[in-house]
Amino acid sequence: MGRFHKSMSWSQTTESESDKQNPHSNLWGSDETDSNTSNASFGLPDTWSHNTSHRSFFLPLHYSNSYQYPLIVWLHSNGFNEHQIDQVMPHISLRNYVGVGIRGTKAADSIGHRFDWHHSPAGIAMTQEAVMQAIEATGERFSINTSRVILAGYREGGTMALRTAMREPDRFAGAISLGGRMPNGSIRNIQQLRERRMPMLWQWGTENPQYNDQNLKMDCQTSMAIGSRVEVRQYPGDDEMTTIVLHDLDEWIMRHVVADSSIQDSNRWVSSPTHYSSN
Known about the structure:
By secondary structure, this protein is of the alpha/beta class. It has one domain (23-260): 3-Layer(aba) Sandwich (Rossmann fold). 32% of the residues lie in helices and 19% in strands. The chain has 8 helices and 10 strands. Helix 4 (121-141) packs across helix 5 (156-167). The chain starts with 16 loop residues before the first helix and ends in a 23-residue tail after the last helix.
């Protein structure tokens, strides 16, 4: 799977009447607001998107209403939109999850294709609201397990995913960041976070400009202060959006969130037992 290029245009498909009547007919679906509301959001590159209902759904192959699926809530990188999930989920798993992509809070172009995440108090509150509404909307349409909701994101979306999960840690089963740092700013619910000990997965490209010893040390200190259970995985190169990274993301969720998973360790982690006296 190649990287995502910011110059890519994203199609904005509107849900048809037949899709509304049969939401399980396709793997992917979109949830759009009416045009009168949308036009107000896309006037200028600096215009904020005040709509929280722009989202894209992903359904697994052979979707069944009789099974409660884990839900992956995906936050795209800056310069993209909610449809990034359409490219990401097939490389994570075609069978294991329901997914929903969330649109960024700030328009990055004048035609409404690209969006960023704004880390101001207003932007953070808007993201929090959008995530909660997306979880509720997904639960109304599809069969999900609300105790297995994972927030995940790429680069700036990864940072926002960690921030959102930390604000309401009891609502999420885990948080994953692909190349996004731990959020800056004061943490007001330290005791709640310490009691929750939220599982987190950080996936970093070793040549990512933000990946260095000092930044990693600062992020680890923050995670230790709140008692999170963090797993850090490093990958060669300057980009985390690879099929290997996404496969590992799936494997981590199945181990740490889906407790009854039958997933087996891969051979690369297998080691033979050695007696202490032999060391």
